[in-house]
Design brief:
Five copies of one chain form a homopentamer. Chain A is mainly beta and 83 residues long. Chain A has one helix spanning 55-60, and strands at residues 2-9, 14-15, 24-28, 34-38, 48-53, 70-75. Chains in contact: A-B, A-D, B-C, C-E, D-E. Chain A binds chain B through residues 10-16, 18-19, 24, 26, 34-37, 53-55, 57-58, 65, 67-70, and chain B through 1-3, 40-41, 50, 52-57, 59-60, 62, 71-78.
Chain lengths: 83, 83, 83, 83, 83
């Protein structure tokens, strides 16, 4: 599982039906690479989270039919990215 | 899920039967790396999209039997790649 | 799906039984990285192809029991790698 | 499977229910990249371990319903990272 | 599938039960990155092999219940890594 920081919400008016009711977040890695994840835990910009990828991401979204490959698994209580 | 920009359609006269009726797009990452995805949403060159990978990509294509590992999940309303 | 160029066939006298009757190809990315894929379409050295990875690669090989993680999905009609 | 070194435990008060009872560890690769894994073997900071990823990680955690994509598979008896 | 060279066996006295009876090998890529794979073909140090990843790796190990994400698929008859 990766450790990423929440940057913002992602707005997509036009998307596939398999993701319609989920919240999407843009996450950024320590090296600056950005990815999109489903957020079932209510993370806010600035939070450090860990993410679940692959088929587990669908279960982690709370519903196997949510078509995601990356889901936030939890908010890390405290994290120093360059420790 | 990754954030990529649509570059062009991809033409393959000779391909496996599992992808025959889908539209393929060449996508480019912010770092210039190019990949091919199935497009079920009708994205146009220049659009920024997010993509679903892995086994979820097959469901996202609207049919689990479409043999893809990358499918466009939605068109992002506005995106600044180097924000 | 990735875009790769066929370099050569791969000869492995000693291999697991799950791949016995397939043709294997060495493919090279634009950056020079080499991978091995099952070829169900009859690609030739020099052809640019796109490849299907993950569990879809097994279906793409024409038989879910073929133990591959990378299968050629189609031959691209024309491709300029450094466009 | 990757070879990584255990750095510390990871504390997440707020997380998805699919991981509630597992121990999470922060692992570091030889190149310094950090990841989070479920630990079913009781590894300690400083131990070198190998990790199982993908859907096998869920089985490796001892319960397919644990929503992980990375699980410690074993503690390596002796390891020189820059050998 | 990747092309890697066998470096050595890997000894882990303490590991998860799902891998107990398999042989583990440390493999090294052309760029020096090391990974661990299950070896069902009897490869020796110095051999160049290709590896199967993902869920296919479990089947390739000869038993779907072997908890691996990387399995040696075959020994390459002759290989020049920097060709």
């Amino acid at each position: 599982m990766e450790i990423l920081q929440v940057e913002s919400a992602l707005v997509c008016t036009q998307r596939i039906s398999g993701l319609q009711t989920t919240s999407l977040r843009v996450l950024r890695s320590a090296s600056g690479r950005r990815q999109v994840a489903v957020d079932p835990v209510g993370a806010r910009p600035g939070n450090w989270v860990y993410t679940v990828s692959g088929s587990a991401a669908r279960y982690a979204a709370g519903n196997f039919e949510v078509l995601t490959d990356l889901t936030i698994g939890g908010i890390i209580d405290s994290w120093e990215p360059n420790a």
